[in-house]
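Recap from last week: sequence in, structure out.
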Amino acid sequence: MKKILFSALALCCTLAFAADKHGDKERQEDIARHRAMAAAHEGAAKCLEAGKSEDICEAQLQAACKGLAIGRMCGMKHQH
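Predicted structure tokens:
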């Protein structure tokens, strides 16, 4: 699960830098969205470190990412 979280976060960052077709306002919104997703992923990592089940941690991650990401996998795609 930790590898999946890290991979998703790395992919988000890569996509953010590759998608440089936005104005300053959209860029700032993307930055804020990525920081929020990173915080959600950090929370999921801490959840797993605390010994909670993957199902519980994934549910918390999905709740934290609601409205930030597109699809079930928080951070794999985001809104533009």
